[in-house]
Amino acid sequence: MADEMPLITRAVWWSDGEVCWINTKELPFREVVRCTNDPVELAKAIVGMEIRGAPAIGVAAALGVAAYSKSLADSGVEISEFRDKVLDVIEVLWKTRPTAYNLFWALSKVKKTLLNSYTMDVVRVANEIINEALSILKEDLEANIRMGIHGASLINYGSTILTHCNAGALATAGYGTVGAVVRIAWRQGKITKLITTETRPLLQGARLNVWEYSKEGIPVTLITDNMVGYVMKRNLVDAVFVGADRITREGFVINKVGTYMIALAAKRHGIPFYVVAPTSTIDLSSSINEVVIEERDPDEVRKVMNELLITLPDVPVMNPAFDVTDPDLVTCIVTEKGILSPPFEESLRKVSVAKV
Ligand code: MRU
Fold first, then answer.
1. What is the pLDDT of residues 118-148, one digit of tens each?
2. What's this model's pTM, rounded to 2 decimal places?
3. Is the CB of 171 under 6 A from ligand 1?
4. Which of 73, 190, 196, 298 could, after both became Cys, cross-link 209 (CB 3.0–4.6 A)?
């Protein structure tokens, strides 16, 4: 069943030597596709969150390096200039968002391809980079399906699932992490309803989850972030599924700000709290104190949709993009390699491949 799942929504893809993406800032009102081989334009799109969600950011960055490499090779530069310029571009993309681990994982892979290539033929090196980027994309799609199958096995028939932020198709190369679980469980007849938080300040739940799941006929109900506790208290949630931007070696889960509150409420109400993430999100090299939590533009909080001011224009605000959920609040971590149980320090080590 999973293998036949149609790929209806794509966040990022390769077309004719360019990286293409759907501008998620415009959703759900306008479907705008953009393509480029200019790494600076791509970097701006990642910082500006036209492309967002940890796996999608990683795939986009790799494809961006590939597109740039192709354009350089087409222009006929020498190998040493090619190497220097591609390394510079990797550096530019590296600095776009500090928390999502998949970005560093994917860029390290293309960098390794560049540095390990001993041929002097620029076109050949560019092709090797393109192949590496395309295999990162393909691996992400395959991992989505595997996570979906594992995650769906945790869901009972007739369940209502709650999710936070968008960990769906729009956050990956294809089906999503949580998105794949939901899509597969829905096809199996296990899910009766998906509840999504709106996910302030940038409204990934209200804008993106509602758009991508409604499109496939998956019944989605929208709540504001502060309704989670009440909805759980009324026994309206059977399980929580969220994605992750980074999972540290101790099992701390860094995900969209608000995740921690939901995990606390789930624990209080005895509701299982599942994290769905590919092994490329697991950062065995960092302990939680070493991870940078991205702090974003204060105007994202002062305004709604970057337009409507909802407070005094100069009020001090905090705008961390992510928060940290302690391992003891997590029931299981679903990866493409299987379902990990506590103690996570041990189970994460067994499956992790990501090296930066
Ligand atoms: O700031 P965003 O929109 O990039 O944050 C996205 C999330 O927090 C997702 O839950 C996470 O990247 C996992 S996506 C499969």
1. 888 999 999 999 999 999 999 999 999 999 9
2. 0.97
3. yes
4. 196
